[in-house]
């Protein structure tokens, strides 16, 4: 899976080749992409896996194959994670240079010799077996897939926000950035022309929105990091006991309320984080530093280990993640993106503190569409397109907006909250060389 970084050494060797395909992944090959994972399999499981495999598929394409028996690959998966580049296709020199020349056999049949755009109908639809498993009719149309985050981006980025007086209103859709926030976060920015952002994946044509270029920033651990910090704290058991007395609360809504009580107001919560700071790259930095070797750290700890201290660590973690988003935005804007509004979806978009601090840290309004399951909306668009009742994905998106008129909740940061977060930002960046320096010490 994507979060498995065991191929970090292979990814570093691929980066060292300096091959031209690296320009489309921000200049650095990530261990979360498929070429280093394939190389790891060849080098470590050659007899038991590599030599026996007939096909290597990304999860979305594997699910499509299970549903239809069709091996046609989605351009979304191949372009974004496998270095495929239409209209030229696979670059044989790249695979040869990294030691995977055997994948060239039979027109790259093991990794995909036939491709199609997302939403294209696959095969004859659902097979008899898949239809029985799913309780659906055989031959039901199945659309070529999007990666889950890209489906979320498609489902959220076109939300109707007329009347909200947002800076993206009456502006091109390229003024919006979709953030899909869950275990990790993906920051999806689109443009009319290809923009090359150091440390950020892309540009990829039509990988999310047809006929637009995609740059994909991200954080390798967001929800995973928050859970790690909260559930690993000494006071977590005490926190659970307190929550059990209030059955209407989950962990994070309780912590959000607890922080408000500590600050005596919602608006002053940010200021509680003035003396505790987190460098959030516990699982490396996906972008814009593109360094999987970075480690996390916490600065400002004391001996105290109360629920209050747990809440402050939670706050500092969320603030660090939000400033990481600001760092990604900075890199994208320097490369030519004009992002004016954030559109959030995913599990963390339901966390009010997470959303508010992102508005504070970035200085941008945040939109939460009423259709909260944006990944499912994006997947539904693919199915509708595959049904051939609509001509293109874009027509479907316009039909959804016209028919459903989805409304939205908007969140803004106050000037002083944004100023406070901006004051934290230089301090956070000072921690980066310390995080990097930890790596050689770990080998002693």
UniProtKB/TrEMBL annotation:
Amino-acid biosynthesis is among the record's keywords: no
Domain Carbohydrate kinase FGGY C-terminal: 177-386
Cited CDD domains: ASKHA_NBD_FGGY_D-RBK
One CC-aspect GO term: cytoplasm
A GO term, aspect molecular function: D-ribulokinase activity
Family the UniProt entry places it in: Belongs to the FGGY kinase family.
Gene Ontology biological-process entries: pentose metabolic process
Keyword Lyase: no
Designated name of the protein: Carbohydrate kinase FGGY C-terminal domain-containing protein
SUPFAM superfamilies: Actin-like ATPase domain
């Amino acid at each position: 899976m994507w979060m498995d970084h065991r191929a970090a050494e292979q990814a570093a060797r691929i980066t060292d080749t300096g091959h031209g395909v690296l320009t489309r992944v921000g200049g650095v090959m990530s261990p979360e992409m498929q070429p280093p994972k394939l190389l790891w399999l060849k080098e470590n499981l050659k007899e038991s896996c590599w030599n026996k495999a007939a096909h290597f598929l990304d999860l979305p394409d594997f699910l499509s194959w299970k549903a239809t028996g069709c091996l046609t690959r989605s351009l979304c998966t191949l372009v974004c994670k496998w270095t495929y580049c239409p209209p030229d296709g696979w670059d044989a020199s790249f695979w040869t240079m990294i030691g995977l020349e055997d994948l060239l056999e039979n027109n790259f049949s093991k990794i995909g010799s036939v491709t199609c755009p997302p939403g294209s109908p696959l095969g004859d639809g659902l097979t008899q077996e898949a239809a029985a498993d799913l309780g659906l009719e055989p031959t039901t149309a199945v659309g070529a897939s999007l990666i889950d985050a890209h489906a979320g981006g498609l489902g959220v980025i076109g939300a109707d926000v007329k009347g909200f007086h947002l800076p993206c209103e009456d502006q091109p859709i390229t003024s919006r950035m979709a953030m899909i926030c869950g275990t990790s976060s993906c920051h999806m920015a689109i443009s009319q022309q290809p923009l090359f952002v150091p440390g950020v994946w892309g540009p990829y044509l039509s990988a999310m929105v047809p006929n637009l270029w995609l740059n994909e920033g991200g954080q390798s651990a967001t929800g995973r990091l928050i859970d790690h910090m909260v559930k690993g704290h000494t006071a977590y058991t005490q926190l659970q006991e307190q929550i059990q007395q209030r059955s209407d609360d989950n962990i994070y809504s309780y912590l959000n309320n607890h922080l408000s009580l500590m600050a005596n107001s919602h608006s002053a919560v940010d200021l509680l984080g003035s003396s505790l700071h987190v460098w959030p790259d516990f699982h490396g930095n996906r972008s814009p530093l593109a360094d999987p070797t970075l480690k996390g750290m916490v600065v400002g700890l004391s001996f105290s280990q109360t629920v209050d201290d747990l809440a402050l660590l939670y706050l500092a973690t969320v603030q660090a993640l939000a400033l990481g988003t600001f760092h990604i935005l900075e890199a994208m804007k320097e490369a030519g993106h004009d992002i004016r509004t954030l559109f959030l979806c995913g599990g963390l978009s339901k966390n009010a503190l997470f959303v508010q601090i992102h508005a504070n840290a970035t200085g941008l309004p945040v939109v939460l569409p009423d259709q909260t399951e944006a990944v499912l909306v994006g997947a539904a668009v693919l199915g509708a397109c595959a049904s051939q009742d609509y001509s293109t994905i874009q027509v479907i998106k316009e039909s959804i907006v016209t028919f459903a008129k989805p409304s939205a909740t908007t969140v803004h940061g106050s000037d002083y909250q944004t100023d406070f977060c901006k004051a934290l930002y230089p301090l956070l960046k000072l921690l980066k060389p310390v995080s990097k320096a930890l790596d050689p010490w770990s080998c002693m």
